[in-house]
Amino acid sequence: MLTGLQKGDLLFQLRTGGELEWIISRLFAGHNGMAINHVAICSGDDEVIEAVMPRVQKTTLDYFISRSVVDGLHRPCILHARIKSDLTDLPEKAVAFADQQLELPYSIDYSSRNRSWYCSALILEAFRNANADIPVFPETPMSFRDLETGEFFPYWVELYKTIGQPIPEGEPGSHPALLSCSDKLEVINVLGQLPVRQNSWTSLDRGVQLA
User: For the range 44-49, what are the long-range contacts, defined as Cβ-Cβ under 8 Å and sequence gap of 24 or more?
Assistant: First the structure.
């Protein structure tokens, strides 16, 4: 299903789940406008390392694929990307860093404080660490607003109220969709027909796609 994977390749995904996964897919558009809400790094031996609730973990490739939204032909929606050839000394080191983060908690406030990670932040830091502390993928301003309405999602309002922090709108961070657009990456393959953002989101049935 996914062939030609190399250690350090990135797998972008429209991941199934609940309200949180649906909201994350609505914040930014990814490569060619694709709806993306998750990213993992291939660690070899048909496994990936990913930051998902409740912790950073190593997952079999088969299980990772099983967590993808499927298209109308029942193909999982995954984008396979690889660091460009002038940076090929980095993937091995990036995987080694990610491996050292296993079991650290998922960052529920989307910061990298207190030794916790969310999916794309782990990838940015892994490649920065591999590149002698020089960022390969720059941070981008975070947003917690619906891309279409410009309003904060009630989920974020309630979350940050509960943890006693302001919503970090515009603060430096990352998002898997924006990472998929990086000019440091080469798209190897798109598995399945990833939904494309349009003026209306009604083409994606929230209940069906993310149940």
Answer: 44/7, 44/95, 48/11, 49/95, 49/98, 49/99, 49/101, 49/102, 49/122
